[in-house]
UniProtKB/TrEMBL annotation:
EC number(s) from the headed UniProt entry: 5.3.1.17
Family: Belongs to the KduI family.
Stored NCBIfam families: PRK00924.1 (NF002091)
Pfam families: KduI
Function: Catalyzes the isomerization of 5-dehydro-4-deoxy-D-glucuronate to 3-deoxy-D-glycero-2,5-hexodiulosonate.
Keyword Phosphoprotein: no
Cofactor note: Binds 1 zinc ion per subunit.
Top EC class of this enzyme: isomerase
Entry-linked PANTHER family: 4-DEOXY-L-THREO-5-HEXOSULOSE-URONATE KETOL-ISOMERASE
Native source species: Flavobacterium glycines
Protein name as it appears in the record: 4-deoxy-L-threo-5-hexosulose-uronate ketol-isomerase
Pathway connected to this protein: Glycan metabolism; pectin degradation; 2-dehydro-3-deoxy-D-gluconate from pectin: step 4/5
Upper taxonomic lineage: Bacteria, Pseudomonadati, Bacteroidota, Flavobacteriia, Flavobacteriales
InterPro entries in the cross-refs: KduI (IPR007045), KduI/IolB_isomerase (IPR021120), KduI_N (IPR027449), RmlC-like_jellyroll (IPR014710), RmlC_Cupin_sf (IPR011051)
Binding positions for Zn(2+) per the UniProt entry: H197, H199, E204, H246
Amino acid sequence: MTNYSSRYASSPKAVKQYDTKQLRDEFLIDNLMQEDELTFTYSHYDRYITGSAVPVNKDLVLETIDPLKSTYFLERREIGIINVGGNGSVVVEGETYELGFKDALYIGSGNKEVVFKSADAKNPAKFYINSAPAHTTYPTVKVSLTEANKLHLGAMETANHRTVNQMIIGSVVTTCQLQMGMTELKPGSVWNTMPAHVHDRRMEVYFYLDIPENQAVCHFMGEPQETRHIWMNNHQAVISPPWSIHSGAGTSNYTFIWGMAGENLDYGDMDVCKITDLR
């Protein structure tokens, strides 16, 4: 089964007037990781798709959705997948790619057949999916967590000691515009992406995981001088517009997957906001 919904873009002027419910309705994605379903949210920010596939009692086939107006999902798109569950595999045009916990897979446009499988129904794979429009075809590439390009940032003294695992990114995999990676916070650290930044040339989606039971993450968004917040639970995602900061603080350490698409593939393309200037 495949389910999808659409989200239209919101201007920063409009978002200033949103109450908590409207803010969550517009930006929070809280229906991911449904068993035996493919679930997608189609955002009009850079036509980005966020979704999941959890095969338990059956394999799941990637099918097109109506907003794409295509005969198959990857006709004019590329896709990135990171497994956040038990061992599984993704079959692309008959070739099988085994994905363990936190392994990633990039699939280029033009691939018609994509099938998601779990190795054990009692501990199913949980495939987190991001997709963006693509202008050409690049090869399918698996990137394990150990193969990621690792950046060690922050410090314990500022509660943001973290490892950024660049996985589907130019220095590791050639893509059209999709970029994905995973940031893991060290025990005792709670802040991600601090100092905060914006990048007007691309949008982003954050997916939070490894949040302990009875804990949560407060995700900050909005213009630097007009911030808002959304409380996040495990396996929820949030859309970050180009004009918005995207940062968070948890009641425990946690992990998040970041995905981006837009005009610039330069990971360092960002406008940093001074911590003391945030409002």
